[in-house]
Amino acid sequence: MKSQHEIKMWTPTTLLLLLFMAAGLVIIIYRLMAGLGAVTNLNDRFPWGLWIGLDVLGGVAMAAGGFLVAGAVYILNMKKYKPIARAAILNAFFGYLLAAIAISLDIGVPYRIWHPIIMWQIHSIMWVVAIHVVLYTSTLATESSPMFFEKLRMEWAANVVHKILVPVVLFGVLLSLLHQSSLGAVYLIVPKKLSSFWYNSQLPTLFLASAIMMGLSMVSLETIISGKAFKHNIDIGILSGLARGTMIAAIVYLAMKLWFLAKGPGISALFNGTMEANMYLLEMIIGVIIPLFLLLMKNARENITSIFLINILVISGILLNRLNVAIFGLYRDASARGASYFPTWMEFVVTLAFISFAIFGFKLSAKYLRVFPEAEAQH
Amino acid sequence: MAKSVLIDLTHCIGCRGCQIACKEWNERSVKKTTMNGNFTNPKELNSECFTHIRYVEQELNGAPVWSFVKNQCLHCKNPACASVCPVAALKKTKEGPVTYDFSRCIGCRYCMLACPFYIPKYEWEKALPWIRKCTFCSDRVSADIVPACVKVCPTNTMFYGEYNDVVKEANNRITKNPGKYVNHIYGKDEAGGTSWMYISGVPFETLGFNMDIPKQELPDLTWAYIRKIPAVIGVVLAAGAVAWAITRRNKNMDKEE
């Protein structure tokens, strides 16, 4: 393997990431000065758009790998996954940081982002979500702090964190289970506005199950990519273990989705040609049906190429699910009087900037911190 | 006790006095509008317009019918907007109005998503925007003065009073005038009941009313989830601790072997 210092910083990819981040920053400044109306196509009938659907709902689901791997390693003592624990936690930290920044920009009065901490309203899912973001981002910061302490040669601080790591991880698992499902619960309040393809009483459980699929796939994908990029051995045992986890979550998720499809619009509604039905089909075929078909075959779960493909499919499909809940599923009701929503190019650029920030941040960490200590030990 | 208003659509002549009175009392400005094919102006409620008349032209039983529908916040008895607000900026007061306090608001717009009637509006063009909607003239109502739109109406389209009296009046008008009204009080059951209600001579669905509003109080849907959280916390922490203890013991036993 290359030692971490050999990771090249100024590649064309990095420059492209920086370009997106710079463009995003300009738009963010403009948004803060001129307001949401100047930058987004949001309107009174579509109060939430791309930033909430993709950056917040999608970003948080992507970060689910952090609590799953941390829980497996530190609570269930599954040592096999130790080599990817740091990367998974760091990745989740960036995911949450992004979601937090995206929310701060999306709310109308960003400098009041702290209000929920002191102005309690326990009947509000949004309050529950806000508290979770604050607590879990702090938890993830604590979980990943040993990497920074090592770098700063503050071994005593890293040791303190190691001593309390098990309860911290358990707290993180609890917060994640609640937070992932709470994001689904946000939509429990719109029974008629949200199409029955997506609305049902178990939205929280469905969000949790799909977040587990997405989180495991994300960790797997990132293990493959960083393995290739940093040229260390990829332990196929870890990848097939993650793939099995994705498979189990996908089976539960598919069963629940089918049950609520039958109970709600009915199986036959799938083929009625409406935009909702088509989006639902697309989401399920990409994110669940094809991946599950592959995952059920043992040799597909033990081959890096097929695992890579499965990860891409699951991540795209579940992201599409979040967009369906946040935008497409609400479209028919909201557009009844001629309103419409399609993101502006500026909304897209800011989203790209967020994603670039996460990738760039992870790359920096991989270069300067010991994200893959076991892989280095092999060297 | 909780005040309430009945809008009797058979009385309205579409003069828009309420629209003007509302603007004056609430110190609202105007937004540029364009011709949109009928008299409704502005076409939709917006952050400067808390109430307006929707003009509906249609043919019923072979005769032309022109109806005037006053629109504004319905002030639900248990409002979804207030229940979802993370900082309690929106509140249902005991006098009836659902009020808004900008000093708490973070601008998350969950109220706009949650409202089944699409009532809360946003000041999209401002850097520090407010949520805007009909206030039920809460400042007047708390001083026992009728709302501005009710006060100005020349045809007594609106009947203002205690909630129970208003429901009684609506039932009276429907039963005492056979054939004049459709047998439905819009807002009596919609969204679990609203403080503003309508009776009409022509079917509500032909006037652009959403008849597919849930009949239950919407906040119950999210509360069903939130109230389980304490139990989940207990179960997860206990299960996690037990799992950790067991797997650690197994690990130690492996070492001894």
* Amino-to-carboxy terminus distance of chain B: 76 Å
- The helical percent of chain A reads over 70%
Number of domains of chain A: 1
Instruction: Categorize the overall geometry of chain A.
Output: globular
The biggest beta sheet of chain A, please? none
SS-derived structural category of chain A: mainly alpha
Strand content of chain B: 15-25%
Overview of this protein structure:
The complex is a heterodimer of chains A (379) and B (257). By secondary structure, chain A is mostly helical. Helices cover 73% and strands 0% of the residues of chain A. Chain A has 15 helices and no strands. In chain A, helix 7 (125-151) packs antiparallel against helix 9 and helix 11 (236-263) packs antiparallel against helix 12 (275-295). Chain B is of the alpha+beta class. Chain B has two domains: 3-77 and 133-218, Alpha-Beta Plaits, CATH 3.30.70; 227-256. Helix content of chain B is 31%, strand content 17%. Chain B has helices at 17-25, 80-84, 110-114, 138-142, 148-152, 163-176, 219-226, 229-256; strands at 3-8, 52-60, 63-71, 90-92, 98-100, 121-122, 131-132, 158-162, 196-199. In chain B, the strands form four sheets. In chain B, strands 8-1-9 form a three-stranded mixed beta sheet, with helices on one face. A two-stranded antiparallel sheet of chain B has the order 2-3. In chain B, strands 4-5 form a two-stranded antiparallel ribbon. The N and C termini of chain B lie far apart (76 Å). The mean pLDDT of chain B is 93. The interface between A and B is large, with 61 and 55 residues.
Topology, please?
The complex is a heterodimer of chains A (379) and B (257).
Chain A: H1 12-34, H2 36-39, H3 50-62, H4 64-75, H5 82-106, H6 115-118, H7 125-151, H8 155-163, H9 165-185, H10 203-229, H11 236-263, H12 275-295, H13 304-334, H14 345-368, H15 373-378
Helix pairs in contact in A: 1-14, 3-5, 3-13, 3-14, 4-5, 4-9, 4-10, 5-7, 5-14, 7-8, 7-9, 9-10, 10-11, 10-13, 11-12, 12-13
Chain B: E1 3-8, H1 17-25, E2 52-60, E3 63-71, H2 80-84, E4 90-92, E5 98-100, H3 110-114, E6 121-122, E7 131-132, H4 138-142, H5 148-152, E8 158-162, H6 163-176, E9 196-199, H7 219-226, H8 229-256
Parallel strand pairs in B: 1-9
Antiparallel strand pairs in B: 1-8, 2-3, 4-5, 6-7
